[in-house]
């Protein structure tokens, strides 16, 4: 069982780069395919039990405007994989006539598990980046997918970022959403998107095991739960989806606040002062 290859279109502009990488995980912690090119370097790191661990390492500055990057990840049936990154990914300006594209295709097979926890994506001033992530899950697949975006570096105006996440489970759409922020995106600074904050993040948890059973970390809730972080003006919401699955969305003034809220909402029993609410998560527009 393999994911469709995320083949980027030819790069445009005098300094644009086209590059791709592939990761395939097999049972027993094996990695039968692990290759990358250009800025997409992939390295095996110390595994945890039977779960293989791979680190994405930026081998050069990327993505720059005009670059086309593609990553394909396949977790074969019965395998387990954890993907991390060595540092934050910074989108930088380049050929201003063309946006950069970073395409990721992920396929998680039956009774397989993927943990996806890279460091944040930062859209620097003048950058223009389109991120598209497509995930296909078998009915018995488990997923922990975290993504965090920062609108600009410290004391810097942000670049433009459009991020689309589509998740299919058992050939049915589980989640399809798009987040936009930065110049040329009307209303991104308003309450419907970032609410005057510069950091946004989310965790998608999918686990078909019943709650209370070994590995059964996901269970339905009667209503969304809202979490706050007064020091950073942060706000998060934990919402049940079909699957069973849980989507946790958060916004805060900085990346530390978003990470703290996501971790807190992931384990709500360890939190205090959390109250149910019926409001939707504030970070995305559907």
Automatic annotation (TrEMBL):
Function: Required for maturation of urease via the functional incorporation of the urease nickel metallocenter.
GO terms assigned for molecular function: nickel cation binding
Record organism: Streptomyces alkaliphilus
Major subcellular site: cytoplasm
Name of the featured protein: Urease accessory protein UreD
Family membership: Belongs to the UreD family.
Highest taxon in the source lineage: Bacteria
InterPro entries, sorted: UreD
